[in-house]
Amino acid sequence: MIGVAQEPVIAFGRFRLFPRRQMLFAGEERVPMGGTMFELLLVLTERPGELIGQHELMKRVWPGRIIDPCNVRSQVAALRRALGCSKGAERFIVTSSGRGYRFVAPVRVGEDAHRPSAAAPERPAVAQPWRAKTLIGREAQIAAAAERLLERRQLTILGQPGGGKSALAHAVASHVAGDFADGVHLVSPDADLPGRGLASSDREMLIVVDAAERNLDAVAALADTMLAELPRCALLVTSREALGSESETVLRVAALPVPAEDEADADAILDCAAVKLLRERMAHVRGDAAATSPAQLASLARRTGGNPLAIELVAAEAALIGAGTLLHALDDSLLLSLHRRAGSLRTTIESACAGLCEDTVTLLDRLGAVTGSFTLEIAARSAALEPGRVATLLRALAARSLVEIREAGDGIRYRLPEPVRAFAAERLRETGEHRGSIARLRRWLIECPDRIAREPVLHRALLAAGTEGEDFGALVLASVPAWRMGNRHAEADHWLDRSLAAANPVLRFSLLEACASFQAAGSGSAANLRRTGEAMLEAAQDGASRLAALRAVWVAQVATGGIDAARVTAAAARVEAARLGEPDRALADLMTSTVLHLEGRPREALDLVDRVIRLVPAGLADFAWPPLRTEALALRARLLLLLGRTDEASGAAAQAVEEARETGDPHALARVIALAALPVAISLARHPLAASLCERLTALSSDLALPRWRAVAELFQHWVSMAVEPSASAEAMEPSLRALAGSPIGMIRAWASTARAEAMVSGQTLFAAFDTVEAGLARASEGERWLRPEWMRIQALALARMGAHEGALALVELGRAEASTQGPWWLSRIDAAKAMLLAGRGGANDPGGSVVRLPRTTTANGRLSRPIAVRGAAPHRTPSTPAVLIQLAEG
Known about the structure:
Helix content is 58%, strand content 7%. Strands 4-3-2-1-8 form a five-stranded antiparallel beta sheet, with no helix packed on it. A five-stranded parallel beta sheet has the order 10-11-12-9-13, with helices on both faces. Helix 8 (273-286) packs across helix 9. The protein is elongated and about 125 Å long. Mean pLDDT is 81; it is low at 1-5, 111-132 and 842-891.
């Protein structure tokens, strides 16, 4: 340091300060330091041992500027770090809370720099701040606690057993230690707590009392004495109960956030505070927690409820035996028995419960049957006590941090911390009262099924509590509307299967009917639905139940094209309905009208459908699936279209969509769009409307989250594309058609198949088109007779494309005779095709000898036999065709 050593020097500790050159050295190494920080150090070292107020510092270091006091604290903190105050016992700057700062190290100046000065008065020795371990997920709470402590001088940290109160207090003490000239003093609540003899009134000390619940009265007396006699001291307390002193400020420590039940994003799971702590503690024991999947970490974290002590104990066990093994074994008993040197969760909670009155303990135990947050009404029902008494007891539990209280959208809600709930549930099982509490809560949900949607966590826990008792099947049955409206098909299938295995004869039919409703909505195959319907017939006890069973069997028959069997079943339903009331007759009429529609008798079907709509007016409660009225409106729209009443068909389709929307049932809305609104819009070439409806159906299919409805949405996407752009690929529709084989919307699948076949003809894949048409005609002859005229029209177009105009015209005549019995819609399409064929007759020729010749004979069912190429023909080569026929084939 040549040239620098000749300047006046301010020395303290191992540092040398050179004011003129604004340099600070630690030994021979220069300490980097900005100008503001250097000015602050100069001002403090000018008057060592003296208190320099914040305002004076602001005037000296920032002359002529308005500075926020927070900037002063920030610069002091930065200066402390530069001087290494946090790395050892050597301290230079202490804070007098709310007053200013004091430079406490001995200072030597100028030529006397090597001799100690008497600048700093000797201070009594006290405990120095410890280096607290880093806490995960507590940064905001540490900052808030430090701010409250410095502002109010007394802070009590409350929290659940094992909630990390002590660790938080240590972190807060470390955070504010520099603000107390005489450091931090940790005292035990069991010792003789210091009062007046603690120190003189000029001492600046932070006193920390951990686990104050062991001696609340003494700690409260200390608080009163300290605040009155030691104005420069502060008190930091951890406890399960508040002290109740006059100036006490309370900070409640919440559990660490855990991943949501439906959280699947790995990054979101790993970013959750509870999972971070779990991984850090597992890595501390094993050295590597990366092998544990995010899903396993999320499950373990949720099992602890975010309780830090539970997380540490679970982490240690998971690191030893593996997360997967632990998850299979981690019940309430194992969670409570996990221990460390200081004891287990069970002993920690037992100590928190010590001294509670008998009624309070009883309430706590009975709340062990409640999972998640709960209302006062739920607590009263679980405990079989009066709500007023329960409210008083809950406040007593909350005072011990055994119950959390929070504001929610539906009012005040309570929650047992997960370790406390596990402790209470274990005790409840030991007393034999667990089954009684579960039964009371199940009955509470059954009495008002609307509660199921409002209490999903409690609902799932009560289902998982066991299949014993009649209340289990009754709860499953009461859950059906919530599952349907919430699109929770997989959950419904699981619990319905379990309830059927344990159901008594009284409930069995109703549970089977619920199964049928979900299978018809799209979660099951037609074969499964038929078997369920047959089981319903066996379990049926009266006419109404037999009618419901017949409907399930009938839906499966219609879905698989068994129209003859469906006609017999509909007739049996009409016999049963004749003995019952109007809604039942409406169901039988709807079944019969659908059969008539599929048989190609739309006029007769429309008369019955109109009667169904009159019998089931809008707004009438309809618990059938699918809903009778919306199904009838959808069928009416299709029938009106076939009868050529296109404006009425559009209106009926719109009415069906609106009424299905008003039911709030997404499945009903999706069915109406698929069965009526979209087919009518596509048929009438209302392409913008069809595209809009297709987008709506796609969104619904995403919400429904069922593969079958995704296939329906994809089917219509391709159908609309082919309607808008005839050159669109017809093969893109094939996967959706395969996925919908045997589905409850089979009639629309068949209609879409005709559009695909026509697109294949337009795309000149004629032999593949013939295969598709022949298969369609076979199905139409067996059960989809309403589509026979359309299939015959498309086959005629294919024949014309191949130059067989005579055969095409002959087939058109057969199709016209078929269409004339059904209604104007198919007839108008066939007449248009006939006109096009006549206009282009004789225009196709192939001098190369590849013309396909067709015999004029027909099969027994009226369709022309498969075309056979003559010698030398090229089967996959299409001869030239007049433009008028190309136009006809394309639309």
